[in-house]
């Protein structure tokens, strides 16, 4: 059965319906749930030949309590290495969530290397804490696999187009689930409870860069955006909805100032009343994805921060997830002011950069706990959302030289 959580988690925002006795079958919406799903891999269309880019179709769906229908938030991870090193510390200091990649993790022209696969790292599952925090605020949240737009095995795809195509595919899946069309996935309690006409976007790293892009801003029904330590491009952020940029004070991959200039320009443009920027002290970049090593050294340092200045990974993950969920909840409700949770000793700092816009302040909040990603129930189906990968397509994948 699907993993459920409720009143037993003292830090959750909602409590479980305690009036249901052992003889009463729980109704859809009585409890929140997390489900990891996998559909058959497929092909993204690309701009060169041959016409396709292989990609996994993975996701983690969080359903909140309540009948709904619940607005959707799509969560996207960043560009990280996806061929699992089994014996190459410090790349993976603990057991990550992996899956089978149907292609080959190897350098071009070389045979399969057992140290590089075929295990494929599920970085979408690494952001399940963000999904779970969002469900506690009443969102149907989904973290999706977005590796394909950032890599090319058979030709290069435009990253913005790749992200958009994958978001559209997963939203199409959620729309079908809402209609009772399950695509072979056994996920109970979703029919009639998902509202894909209202969509929020959350992205980490390169995913954060995408959610700040003009293409993302064009999404119909968009009500709010959160960029987590974004790896941003050169384009201006044109959003008309509330936007929050979260920066890591110890960011080792992009920079502790990631997204700040973009938020200043957005605030100056006047296109949205909320262009908020918040700095998370002691927070590294890979730390926010539980599938990646949180620190750079055995001593625990991250980036330019010594171990003494680095936050506990679980606390940093909770802080980012709780702020994200709270911000989008208030964005959906078009709040006249925003109060964001601040965990003890982490002291996030920042506010709304838009002059005259709603104030963004902080209040002390307890640290939530989250389901171990390795224990999330998995459902699989051989059905597909994307066109099939041609059997004669020759694909080689190698880790980047900078990994």
TrEMBL record:
UniProt feature, compositional bias: Low complexity: 7-23
Keyword field: Hydrolase
Record region (Disordered): 1-34
One GO molecular-function entry: hydrolase activity
InterPro entries per record: AB_hydrolase_fold, FrsA_esterase
Family: Belongs to the AB hydrolase superfamily.
PANTHER family assigned: DIENELACTONE HYDROLASE DOMAIN-CONTAINING PROTEIN-RELATED, POLYKETIDE TRANSFERASE AF380
Protein name: Alpha/beta hydrolase
């Amino acid at each position: 059965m699907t993993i459920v959580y409720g009143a037993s988690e003292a830090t959750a925002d909602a409590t479980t319906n305690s009036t249901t006795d052992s003889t009463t079958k729980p109704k859809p919406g009585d409890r929140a749930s997390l489900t990891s799903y996998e559909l058959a891999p497929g092909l993204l269309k690309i701009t060169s030949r041959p016409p396709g880019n292989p990609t996994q179709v993975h996701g983690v769906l969080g359903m909140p309590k309540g009948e709904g229908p619940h607005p959707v938030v799509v969560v996207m991870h960043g560009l990280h290495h996806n061929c699992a090193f089994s014996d190459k510390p410090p790349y993976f200091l603990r057991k990550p969530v992996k899956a089978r990649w149907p292609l080959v993790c190897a350098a071009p022209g070389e045979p399969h290397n057992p140290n590089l696969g075929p295990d494929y790292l599920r970085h979408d599952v690494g952001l399940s804490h963000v999904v779970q925090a969002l469900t506690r605020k009443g969102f149907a949240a989904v973290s999706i696999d977005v590796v394909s737009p950032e890599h090319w095995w058979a030709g290069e795809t435009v990253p913005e187009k790749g992200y958009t195509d994958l978001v559209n595919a997963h939203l199409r899946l959620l729309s079908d689930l809402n209609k009772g069309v399950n695509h072979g996935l056994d996920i109970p309690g979703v029919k009639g409870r998902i509202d894909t006409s209202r969509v929020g976007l959350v992205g980490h790293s390169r995913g954060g860069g995408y959610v700040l892009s003009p293409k993302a801003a064009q999404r119909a029904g968009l009500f709010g955006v959160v960029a987590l330590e974004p790896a941003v491009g050169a384009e201006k952020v044109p959003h008309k909805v509330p936007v929050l940029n979260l920066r890591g004070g110890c960011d080792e991959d992009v920079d502790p100032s990631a997204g700040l200039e973009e938020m200043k320009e957005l605030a100056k443009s006047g296109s949205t009343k909320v262009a908020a920027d918040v700095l998370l002290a002691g927070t590294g970049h890979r730390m926010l994805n539980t599938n990646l090593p949180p620190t750079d050294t055995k001593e625990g340092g991250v980036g330019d921060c010594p171990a003494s200045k680095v936050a506990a990974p679980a606390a940093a993950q909770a802080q980012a997830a709780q702020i994200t969920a709270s911000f989008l909840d208030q964005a959906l409700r078009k709040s006249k002011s925003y109060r964001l949770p601040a965990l003890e000793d982490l002291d996030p700092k920042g506010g709304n950069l838009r002059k005259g816009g709603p104030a963004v302040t902080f209040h002390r909040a307890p640290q939530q706990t989250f389901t171990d990603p390795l224990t999330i129930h998995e459902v699989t189906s051989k059905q597909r959302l994307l066109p099939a990968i041609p059997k004669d397509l020759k694909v080689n994948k190698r880790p980047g030289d900078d990994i």
